[in-house]
């Protein structure tokens, strides 16, 4: 199939499946995005895992553990979806994609390079980080690659629960003591701008967007999704009695959207280059786990091989 025919096919909302013929740059674009998305899910477990032993009650601990376990599952669906694109020329097997993350070659979401310093941060991660992730992922349910699109349907169902558990943590803190409310405000102050940066660079500085939208991988632009996130989140902050840390934030009656200040793009670039507050720590934690738990993988592989021989 030539590229024009392929474009017409996906633009007519037809799904592409693993054995279908597809252009190389479509395959590469998907492997890049799906595997980076998978890395985000598994690195994203780390800031929250830091709070499991310190959750303030058994109920909170159970909900947090369930959420973190869900993120591991999301990573699994996504690595499996990426693997369906492996064709030798464009390597996408799990070991290769995972090692690209461990070596620092492949990216994961910038947001997970920020620390979770207080219990309120766990609320802010659920509310803002999962909230931003859902805004982006609802659009991805309609992407043109079948395995990725189906993985997103399952992931989105679980993300809604994550967002609510975060918002509920903050609601409890905001109705608590003065110190608890201050802790919630401090978490919002630190997570607001990094959450907005999750949507990626502005549209005019986004090198992949045009191709991705033509191939119906991305269905909406970085800026359009960021604007929608701001529009729904400002009102949620008002309900909590918290102030968004942006002096330029105001409702525009004509556009029916909130206007907001310029994002700290220098900080975004630093984080992408590996110089965020936790980049080195996150990668070292994952590398250490890979080294120290290699024997578990080897034992599982040996057991699977033995089972196959027995059949
Ligand atoms: N962080 O040309 P664009 C979650 C990179 S899941 C790091 O606009 P694109 C769940 C981008 O890769 C969160 N890098 O790129 C959870 C590209 O570099 P490359 C993750 C970023 O792909 C919650 C370059 O900048 N979600 O949170 C970021 O068209 C709680 C130029 O950018 C997904 O991955 C960033 N924020 O659009 C888990 C969703 N933004 O690859 C645990 C799927 C951009 O050319 C706890 N991904 N870059 O070297 C996407 O929708 C897209 O890839 C975007 C970026 C929108 C992230």
TrEMBL record:
Catalytic activity, EC: 1.14.13.149
The name this protein goes by in its record: 1,2-phenylacetyl-CoA epoxidase subunit A
Organism listed in the record: Kaistella pullorum
Domain of life the protein comes from: Bacteria
Keyword Glycoprotein assigned: no
PANTHER family, alphabetized: 1,2-PHENYLACETYL-COA EPOXIDASE, SUBUNIT A, PHENYLACETIC ACID DEGRADATION PROTEIN PAA
Listed NCBIfam families: PA_CoA_Oxy1
Stored InterPro entries: Aromatic_CoA_ox/epox, Ferritin-like, Ferritin-like_SF, PaaA, PaaA_PaaC
Record keyword Lipid biosynthesis present: no
An annotated Gene Ontology molecular function: phenylacetyl-CoA 1,2-epoxidase activity
Keyword terms: Oxidoreductase
Pfam families: PaaA_PaaC (PF05138)
């Amino acid at each position: 199939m030539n590229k024009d025919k392929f474009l017409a096919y996906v633009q007519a909302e037809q799904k592409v499946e693993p054995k279908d013929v597809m252009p190389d740059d479509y395959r590469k674009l998907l492997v890049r995005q799906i595997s980076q998305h998978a890395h985000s899910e598994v690195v994203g477990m780390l800031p929250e895992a830091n709070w499991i032993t310190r959750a303030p009650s058994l109920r909170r601990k159970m909900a947090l553990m369930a959420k973190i376990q869900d993120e591991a599952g999301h990573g699994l669906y996504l690595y499996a979806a990426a693997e369906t694109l492996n064709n030798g020329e464009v390597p996408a097997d799990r070991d290769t994609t995972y090692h690209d993350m461990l070596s620092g070659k492949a990216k994961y979401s910038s947001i997970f390079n920020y620390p979770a310093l207080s219990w309120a941060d766990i609320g802010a991660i659920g509310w803002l980080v999962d909230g931003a992730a859902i805004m982006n992922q609802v659009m991805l349910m309609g992407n043109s690659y079948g395995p990725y699109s189906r993985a997103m349907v399952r992931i989105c169902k679980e993300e809604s629960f994550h967002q609510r558990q975060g918002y509920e943590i903050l609601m409890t803190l905001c109705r608590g003591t003065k110190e608890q409310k201050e802790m919630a405000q401090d978490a919002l102050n630190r997570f607001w701008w990094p959450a907005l940066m999750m949507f990626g660079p502005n549209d005019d500085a986004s090198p992949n967007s045009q191709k991705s939208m033509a191939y119906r991988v991305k269905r909406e632009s970085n800026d359009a999704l960021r604007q929608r996130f701001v529009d729904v989140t400002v009102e949620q902050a008002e309900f909590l009695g918290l102030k968004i840390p942006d002096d330029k934030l105001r409702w525009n009656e004509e556009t029916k959207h909130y206007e907001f200040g310029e994002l700290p793009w220098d900080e975004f670039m630093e984080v992408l280059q590996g110089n965020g507050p936790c980049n080195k720590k996150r990668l070292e934690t994952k590398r250490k786990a890979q080294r120290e738990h290699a024997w578990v993988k080897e034992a599982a592989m040996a057991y699977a091989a033995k089972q196959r021989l027995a059949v």
